[in-house]
Amino acid sequence: MKKFKEFRVGDTFQSTCSISDKELEEYLSFSRVRNSFLDEMKKGESMVSGRAILSRMEGEFTRLSQIYGNHIVFIGTDGDPEWENRNTRFLKPLTTDQVLRLKFTVSGKEDIDEEFGKIAIDFEGLNQDGETIVLSKKNIYRIKKEPPR
Predict the structure, then answer these.
(1) Any domain includes 149
(2) In which domain, by residue range, is 125 found?
(3) Which pLDDT tens digit goes with each residue over 66-125?
(4) How many CB atoms lie within 10 A of CB 29?
(5) Residue 118 · residue 112 · CB < 8 Å
(6) Residue 43 is part of a domain; what is its CATH number?
(7) What is the per-residue pLDDT across 26-65, written as a single tens digit (0 to 9) for each?
(8) How many domains does the chain have?
(9) Per the domain annotation, does 62 fall within a domain?
(10) Is 78 helix (H, G, I), strand (E, B) or coil?
(11) DSSP string spanning 68-105?
């Protein structure tokens, strides 16, 4: 696990994951998303909703060996000025049979106070063919400077 002082802007971490049909069903049930397009898709191919992708990406981020063990809290997003202050772009659909290769990049770091700092993380998800599925910039986490022992 890295401590706050060890993070540098530009650090990258990688992971892979996939979302099964069962996991997608559980997510849609829990989130209570009601979308006729997704309901129709269930009858054929299983396209993964954007929020489900982002949720899994954040989950994978918190499981990284460099992150796990830190006290972190997701506190929001700052949009990218080049994207009219939006922070996420979905560029291609993802289906439940695809592998998602994840890249996490530290894009910002600042002190909050003596006890906490703030790191911004850019998410990038590519399918197994190397095509970009999603980009999500400036996901902001409050992180305890000294993790528990």
Answers:
(1) no
(2) 4-144
(3) 999 899 999 988 877 888 888 999 999 999 889 999 999 999 999 999 999 999 999 999
(4) 9
(5) yes
(6) 3.10.129.10
(7) 888 888 876 655 555 555 568 898 989 999 999 999 999 9
(8) 1
(9) yes
(10) coil
(11) BTB-EEEEEE--BGGGTTB-EEE-S--BTTS-EEEEEE
